[in-house]
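Today's session is about reading a structure prediction critically. Students often jump straight to the picture, but the first step is always the sequence itself: look for stretches that repeat, for charged clusters, for runs of hydrophobic residues. Only then move on to the predicted structure, which in these notes is written as discrete structure tokens rather than atom positions. Here is the chain we will use throughout the hour.
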Amino acid sequence: MQKLIFLKYGELSTKKENRNFFIKLLNNNIKKVLEDVEITYDYGRMFIIPKDNNFNDVINKLQNVFGIHEIVVADRLFNKDLEAIKKEVINVLQTKQFNTFKVEVKRSDKTYPYDGMELRKILGSVILKNIPNLKVDVNNPDIVITIEIRQKEVLIYSDGIKGLGGYPVSSLGKGILMLSGGIDSPVAGYLAIKRGIKLEAIYFESPPHTSEAALDKVKKLAQRLALYNNDIKLHIINFTAIQEAIYKNIPHDYLITIMRRMMYRISAIIASRENAKVLINGESIGQVASQTLTSMNAINAVVNIPVIRPVACFDKLEIIAIAKKIETFATSILPYEDCCTIFVPDHPVINPDKHRCEEYEKLIDYEDLIYTAVKNKNTILIKAENKEFADIL
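Below is the predicted structure for this chain, in token form.
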């Protein structure tokens, strides 16, 4: 008998020609977070054997890996004799507390001398005979004991642990997350990672109007996202000169619209240089003036790259619930303003006109300002397991 962990692929199992690509990538991603484990896989399962038997630590790390539907601790028998199976089933169940049970059998080895129905009856009777005070409940059992009869082995297991699901990170390419210090953008980043997008992030600082504490807050949020993303490049843009030029020259009701258009332009340049295929942000329809459909259209007009808004149709309470789940909420509500909030006008335009935006932008030399901001950007590599951040690249 050998104790091991095996993974169920879930959504990956819907893939056909590309299934092996996704499974190999999942294997590579797991190797980045686990040490001292033996990993093997086939078309339907991935098997992990911790060399130091530290199953809890391995499971905790696997729960942060996208592409896993379920994590199962199982006993593997290489002896497929029925008597050996009976004995091991009893050994497994005697370590658990339950009153009702159900037996399930999966038989991929069709040459095995007993079919699934026969095995369920035989093993159910053995359990009732050897463990007192139990009842069978096929509808709502305390425990489901599953026996898989495979070609070269038998797997015996009960409770599975839900994984994150989704696709393995980077399986769908790279995206640039416009990461502010707020609640919404980290949630948007998490949801994008779940769909297989490898994130890099961009943050716009505006010293002295924004503080070092605000930047540290964003680094902590990026570090939390790195837990799911393996690591994150954080591109830091000094936005002070652009923001001051906008404030001095642009009618104040258009401040936020023009500022967002500049951020989009810069983010698109970084995306092109980093070979990213999309921009990602935390915009939620109607939440603020810059997130009306008309505003989004006016702001989006300055870039050709697709913009993904994972929380666009979520309300604030739904976004907060996810933020708490992924443990970004407490950091996001720290009272340090970012550059999106320091110059908010009393009455921002709700339905900006694209042509008026273009006319107003002629009042500032924004192309040179953008060139300088991009040229002087700082990039930091943030890894989940490190408390400190890597040197500037």
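Discussion point for the tutorial: Residues 2-165 form a domain with the VC0802-like fold (CATH 3.30.2130.30).
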